[in-house]
## 1
Amino acid sequence: MVAKRDSRILLLGCGAVGTVAARHLAASKLVGSLTAADVSADRAKATVAATRSKKVRPLALDLEDDGALRDAVRGTSLVINAALPKYNLAIMAAALEADVDYMDLAGGGKDQLALDPTWKRAGRTAPSGWARTPASGTCSPATPRTGWTRSTP
């Protein structure tokens, strides 16, 4: 599978890690649109400003609101979780329900890893702990279902 240039990414969490991720994603030609979501509308807007890209939009989103989370996930290609770990399982459930790939920048707890068979049966991927992975800065989630592709600067 070749990555589509119209990928729609939802980034959850616009703190330091989320903002850096947003800047890299916004610069990629493989990303068609990026929604930077955070409970703080100001933080989401600041992340958008940091990208200097017209393909990035802010979204005020309270992850405690399951309905709003599911609505935000629906229609995306990939959910990238840079939010607090207490939301990991709810975000994973929303992504799986919407048939969307998931990437967690900080997770990887046993509860998440135990869901691997469920994600495999669904034909989706859900890598965790991506921000801690050695050499992750040289790869991108261009083709989550089939593997990682090497990024070019």
## 2
Amino acid sequence: MKIFTATVSLAALLVIASAIAAARKAGTNGEAKTPAGDEMQAKDRLLNQSLQDWHTGKKTNHEITRNDTKQHETGLNFRVVCLVWIRVVSWFMFSLCPNVVSSDLDETEPNPLPRQSPLKLPLADPQLVVSKHKRQLHLFAEGVVVRTYRIALGANPTGDKVEQGDRRTPEGDFYIDVKNERSKFYFSLGLSYPNSEDAERGLRDQLISRAEHGRIVRAIRNKGRPPWDTALGGEIFIHGGGTQGDWTWGCIAMENADIKELFDALPMGTSVRIEP
């Protein structure tokens, strides 16, 4: 489609260039060409007329005015021809390819399915994959993307979450461990952060104790909710509230209509992968 559009555009430019050349040629051909002898006689007549007009008090600029008027009319005709050809070529292009603009937008449109089509519930093997870089959340069913949503991240969006209060959105593999229909941000889905990898890192960096590490690992092994009261932080949700800029404390924010659709479609334990 892009090659076709470029070809049509090039043809349009060639047509316009031809029209410009024709208009200029018409303008120059309209001017009378006189031989050298006639030109000298014309100059003599103009000089005699000028002297006569000076004696009689008349203005001598009537030839100049006539020439200016003629040049103005030639320029006006040139512009009219160009405008007409531009309108004709534009109409021709859009009549041949009326969907050029919409097809270009479709290439970058994040939603693979029309939002008018409701999800067919229950979803078979639902999974979520979050791309932090693209600010997108993909909903899969049986390995096929059925929705792509726009998201917002924590106010410090780059990098993995390290500790409580860093306002980063965590990265890794999690699952939904809480569903809250009375969230402060419309609806929310809790994620199993910190996971076992976070617990290992926290123990290595001496952010948590061995007992806290054990609590986290046991909760993840049992598909429960890990503790939120350690130095690693917690209470990471997917919730509503809007996607105008990265504004959360580490959660993933969505438009309210989108989180409502996810909330209704996803069961507890749904896997969630958050990629950089």
